[in-house]
Amino acid sequence: MLESASEILKANNMSVTASRQQILSLFFDKDRGALRHSDIEKQLDNLDRVTIYRTLQVFSDKGLIHPISGSDGVTRYALCKGNCSEGHHHDNHVHFYCHKCSQTQCLNEVQIPKVELPGIFTVRNIEMLIHGVCQHCKN
Questions:
Q1: 3-state DSSP call for residue 106?
Q2: What is the DSSP string of 20-46?
Q3: Which of 1, 7, 18, 102 is most exposed by smallest CB count within 10 Å?
Q4: Nearest to 27 by CA among 74, 95, 77
């Protein structure tokens, strides 16, 4: 089991830089949920917007994180679990968006139901985002 950001970067044949380690380490916080570019920028004010953007793109391309399209038009990113690899995301799970705290969480144990489409369509990706109130905000 790879435990540190530098080990994960090395295992994915990526240069180990301070900015990559800092950004990847943010994704290890289980309570944080999915992160927006602006969340990372606030946490790591020593990094510029372009560095963050490029790092998120590289991490997504390498299968370390996956994008989550929000209904607000803002993309969030979450750590991939297990079987994603470079160019191949296999994060077919449901995401939950809390409209009170604006956190997006991966529900890894909830799979997206199979959708049967007419033969004239080819599915490339299915995203499911459930809106509601999380347990923390409900209390």
A1: strand
A2: HHHHHHHTT-TTT-SEEHHHHHHHTTT
A3: 1
A4: 77
**CA distances for 14 relative to 2, 9, 59, 60, angstroms:** 14, 5, 9, 13
d(CA 118, CA 104): 31
Predicted confidence band of residue 93 (pLDDT cuts 50, 70, 90): confident
Domain 5-138 has CATH 2.30.38.10: no
Indicate the residue type of 123.
Answer: V
Please tell me the number of Cα atoms within 13 Å of 87 on its side-chain side. Answer: 0
Mean pLDDT taken over the chain:
85
